[in-house]
Design goal:
By secondary structure, this protein is mainly α. It has seven helices and no strands. The radius of gyration is 18 Å and the shape is globular. The two termini are 29 Å apart.
Length: 208
Amino acid sequence: RNTLPRSTRNASKAYLSTLLAFLVLRGSVFLVRSFLGSEALGYFSTASQVTDTLGLFPTSLALVLFPRLVRQDLGRYRFMLRNLAAVSLLMGVGCGFFELVATPFVRILFGAQFLPSVPILRWLLPGALLLGASTVVQQYVAASGLPRRLLAILVLGLACTVGLGVLLIPVYGAIGAAMALSISYAVIFLLALALAHHMSRSESPKAA
């Protein structure tokens, strides 16, 4: 009888987490447009399309992980860590690949006029890696029943994106927005991982 309400709460947490993550990215878009105009926004959006494509893998994995984490009472933390290592490795390979081929990739796919998006892409790649890793950690936290702390971390990440963007964009342009986004994702990942580690102490000693 208690399963349905818990499932509903977990689904709501997953939805709100996704919404806040979306707002973190859209906050950067809004700032780039406000400070720099449409041309810079075009370059930033081009770079974002590549990182969005990379993000499809951890997002898809999260859809599989979340139900299992909700059902699994023991060993959730170790299960999450194994998946975190796998996702981080694969995302690292993907990001490293795009780091190497960024210039020809953009030239062939989007045209030479979009080459200014290459340095933006390179600064977004660390954020893509960290976002993919934090997506896995967030599923563990959300499935463990502490939505307010998770949401507070994401709200802090959004505040970092906006605050750092206001500081960095006037100095570094759209690259500054990419820097702010990657730093924000680092904050989100580290705080979510710390929260997950803290919550793992409540698991059975056999699972820890």
